[in-house]
Request: fold
Amino acid sequence: DTEVTQTPKHLVMGMTNKKSLKCEQHMGHRAMYWYKQKAKKPPELMFVYSYEKLSINESVPSRFSPECPNSSLLNLHLHALQPEDSALYLCASSQLGSLDTQYFGPGTRLTVL
Amino acid sequence: EDQVTQSPEALRLQEGESSSLNCSYTVSGLRGLFWYRQDPGKGPEFLFTLYSAGEEKEKERLKATLTKKESFLHITAPKPEDSATYLCAVRGRKLIWGLGTSLAVNP
Reply:
């Protein structure tokens, strides 16, 4: 089973709202990732968690706050976003840290009004 | 500087018309090349991982090959359901993504 699940599928929020994106995997993977993808562009790495610890933060603005409560769950907390943050947010996981194949979830389509 | 280039940018085929997509790369110390398929508004779906030159992998109508400079994704007798964007990613020091090839297969 190579399934990564993400909720919600769609999210519309105002610039003053606080919301969270959730990701879950049950493949025993010890690395989890958040990506942002704009239309007709490849995924852009935001954060990497290895063994539940934040290992990479690609200079993402603090209005995005990741959290890894356990080895199966990954959250992305959103606060005071801008319209340009509207995008497809993708979660991925991999077996052995960053060296192995990443498996992606279906994504959350975020619209910031 | 590590770089990944995919070509063509877009490709339109008739059903049954075989073709190849290219992913050329410049990376110091290749640690893996990955092919994904992505449908509009959905997450990338993993297809293949290749680690060393000469390696080949097949899945249904798709076959991926790897040399020291490039990878090809061969599509044999494509069907309309093969229409998607095909993404290549290469891991050197970091994972670098190509911009993708948008494939449309007409019935």
The mean pLDDT of chain B is 96. Residues 28 and 92 of chain B are 6 Å apart (CA to CA). Chain B touches chain A at residues 31-32, 34, 36, 41-46, 49, 87, 89, 91, 95, 97-100 (CB under 8 Å).
